[in-house]
Task: inverse folding
């Protein structure tokens, strides 16, 4: 069952997580937050300068539970936020999944008529595919349209997907570090790269530019 869930992770359109959502001002914070499409506990907590665990606990929830669009969350008062030690890590730089930068042929999109949950790099000189984060290889498989692919599991419910591989050079259960070799691209396709945090899709292009918290 776990493997089926991982396959669904990329087979649903292999919808956008809005990394560029408006930031909530730290001054005069409201006492409630209305959940919008793509929000996660980590994203909301980052905007409010509070830990996701504290935010979830205040609402009688856990960070493992899903959020729902238009749901109203109670948030700590400004004074309480100041006193809460941050439990989140600083911005982590993500390792580029190829040896050199390649042009993005198809961008991340949440358009209903043309969804694309990852980014498709143009096939250039880089054939070696590398892990962008340290983690565990949780699934290795083949899917029409995406050739051989690898899914890595990381901390905080993060998964990364690497598709269009000709040869895979890791096995399920293997621990990898950032920049470790995962496989070799097919001759006629560029890398397909996707990032998911729990059930939300992140825009890989933005994460590559800004890093990940």
Result:
């Amino acid at each position: 069952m776990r493997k089926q869930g991982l396959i669904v992770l990329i087979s649903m359109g292999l919808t956008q997580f809005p990394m560029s959502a408006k930031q909530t001002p730290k001054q005069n914070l409201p006492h409630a937050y209305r959940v919008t499409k793509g929000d996660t506990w980590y994203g909301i907590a980052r905007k409010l300068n509070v830990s996701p665990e504290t935010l979830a606990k205040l609402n009688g929830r856990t960070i493992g539970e899903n959020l729902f669009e238009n749901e109203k969350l109670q948030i700590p008062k400004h004074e309480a936020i100041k006193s809460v030690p941050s439990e989140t890590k600083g911005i982590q730089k993500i390792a580029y999944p190829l040896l050199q930068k390649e042009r993005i042929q198809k961008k991340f999109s949440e358009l209903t008529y043309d969804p694309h949950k990852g980014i498709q790099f143009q096939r250039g000189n880089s054939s070696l595919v590398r892990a962008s984060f340290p983690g565990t290889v949780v699934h290795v498989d083949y899917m029409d349209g995406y050739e051989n692919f690898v899914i890595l599991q990381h901390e905080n419910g993060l998964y990364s997907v690497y598709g269009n591989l000709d040869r895979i050079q890791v096995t399920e259960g293997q621990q990898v570090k950032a920049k470790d070799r995962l496989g070799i691209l097919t001759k006629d396709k560029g890398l397909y790269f996707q990032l998911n945090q729990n059930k939300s899709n992140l825009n890989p292009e933005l994460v590559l530019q800004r890093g990940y918290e």
